[in-house]
Amino acid sequence: MKHVVLWMQAVALCWAFAAAAQTPAKETPLPPCATEPEGYRMENYHAPTPATLQGATVVDTAQAFDLWTRKAAVFIDAIARPKRPADLPPYQPWSAEPRRDIPGSLWLADTGFGELSPEAQRYFETGLARATGGDKSKPILFYCRTHCWASWNAGKRAKTLGYTNVYWYPPGADAWEKAGHPLEVKEPAPGE
Fold first, then answer.
1. Is the distance from CB of 158 to CB of 40 less than 8 angstroms?
2. Pick the CATH number of 41-82+98-192 from 2.40.340.10, 1.10.10.10, 3.40.250.10, 3.40.50.720
3. What residue ranges do the domains of the chain occupy?
4. What stretches of the chain show up as alpha helix (H) in DSSP?
5. Please, which pLDDT band fits residue 18 given cuts at 50, 70 and 90?
6. Which of 13, 56, 90, 128 has the fewest beta carbons closer than 10 A?
7. Largest Cα–Cα distance of the chain, in whole Å?
């Protein structure tokens, strides 16, 4: 019980730091609010993330923008596809808000979950192979949104597949847009 209380206090403190540190002029580093799990994050994907991803290079918005402008990395969005709300009556019309990605990115939807079905795993592997031309040393940058574990999980998964030049951009498309950089409406990459 004591561990749960300490964890809840740490999360509350992280949120307080994040809220107090917001400045419109420049990006404020995200506070390290979690430690890296040994495996993948399995639940609560929209929560504070660690400051690190073992074996990957963590970048801020300026560094991500530099990689993007130089076309020095493949950009992969790992955020989940929006789901129809479960409590919405079947007769109620619904459409997902369009996903706005960093231009030129590949959206490998639903590949940031802690556990992937065999089909989702194949989709991820095939998408990465296509995006990199099969070159596992080609730089790949993973992102989604601020406080989103999907990109962390996807980056870790790429490392386990043998990709050697992995970047992780924890602030994601939210910070990219806040910095005044362009976004484009994107659909998930098609499967095979």
1. no
2. 3.40.250.10
3. 41-82+98-192
4. 2-20, 61-69, 118-132, 149-160, 172-178
5. very low
6. 90
7. 50
**CB within 8 A of 43, min separation 6: which ones?**
114
pTM score above 0.85: no
Which residues lie closer than 8 Å to 150 by C-beta, 6 or more apart?
A: 45, 78, 79, 80, 111, 112, 113, 144
Confidence of residue 27 (pLDDT cuts 50, 70, 90): low
The answer to whether 132 and 74 have CB atoms below 8 angstroms apart is yes
Alpha carbons 172 and 151: distance in angstroms, whole number = 9
Q: How many CB atoms lie within 10 A of CB 104?
A: 11
169 vs 44: CA distance, rounded Å: 19
